[in-house]
Amino acid sequence: MPIIQTSYRTSHIWKDAHFSTIYPSTLRKVTGIEYDRERLELWDGDFLDLDWSKAGKPTKKVKTKKKAVAAVEEQRNIQPSKSLAILSHGFLGNTTRPYLLGGVKAFNSIGWDVLAWNHRGLSGEKNRLERMTIHGGSDELEAVVNHALVKGIYEEIVLVGYSKGANIALKYAGEKGEGISDKIKKVVAISCPTDLQGSIVAMGKAGFYAERFKVKLLKFLKNRWELIDSQIFKEFEKYKYLEDFTNNYIAPLHGMKDAEEYYEQCAAMPYVDKIRVPSFILNAKNDPVLSESCAMLDLAKHSDYIFSEYPNYGGHCGFYLSNSEGLYYGDKRMLEFVEGKIVV
Fold first, then answer.
1. Degrees (nearest 5) of the Cα angle 253, 257, 261?
2. Can you give the residue ranges of the AB hydrolase-1 domain (predicted)?
3. Residue 21: which H helix or E strand, with range?
4. What's the rounded Cα separation, in Å, for the pair 9 and 30?
5. How far apart (Å, rounded) are the C-alpha atoms in residues 107 and 208?
6. Domains of the chain: which residue ranges?
7. What's the rounded Cα separation, in Å, for the pair 212 and 16?
8. Are 300 and 281 in contact (CB under 8 A)?
9. Segment 56-95, tens digit of pLDDT
10. Fold of domain 3-195+268-338
11. pTM, to two decimals
């Protein structure tokens, strides 16, 4: 049964849920990533900004002592990769977040191209429409996936998501079920709130992380004030909790009655049992943002497709690991799963 025995071990301050969450989010440095940006036009007149990180594989090294110039040119000849990882970031993040850059570096290190997409309004440029990328935004991920498929380059694609992006990836795979493209081989979900209602309860209505997300959301909305009705915008200052924004603004904006309906419709949980590609969930028991139900342990015990690892420590999108490569446990575990090296 696909419950994965964890190999994650840590000590001292890294056992603290808050330190192991906040340090990687604010102080982790990932270097060596260069993006090429592409704009994807959407069906509703808006757009998504896609950031590509290519990692071609060198051809055979020159072994003979031919002319120096010819040898240099031969070594510079790069074959395009036929493997692609599509990475989805978390709530109010973007493609420059340390956890996501770690994933980019990990996949590039094994010769995979990476397509990391920015949710609406988070690429550094304001979007055209008021609509946001919600927790259930599988339609936007589908647009990104289809864009990659149309290129006709890639023989294998893996979907990777972090937090909100992980929920989107699992929901997309579940909605597609047996109809998912045969190019999509696996899904990886790190620190995934599959049970959104459970996650809200775990954070607490007035908890530290709920407050932190509320402040970030208010800042985001203020930065796009011209897209929002002035009367609605004035109400934002009255909202005391994160849930107030979801209940009174975000849910109605996207055709849902209230926060309860938002959590119900956007959560990946109802769709996970319909997934028909191997999918890996890595959540930590001490994650201050997620409930135990988010790890989908009961489903994984009886599933041929859902693999769940639930270490005691790691925080939220943390999983710190000291090594010379600059990769954390989540980065390494993700590659092991993709390459079929994890033993159940």
1. 105
2. 86-302
3. helix 17-26
4. 22
5. 33
6. 3-195+268-338, 203-266
7. 18
8. yes
9. 644 444 344 444 444 334 444 467 899 999 999 999 999 9
10. Rossmann fold (3.40.50)
11. 0.93
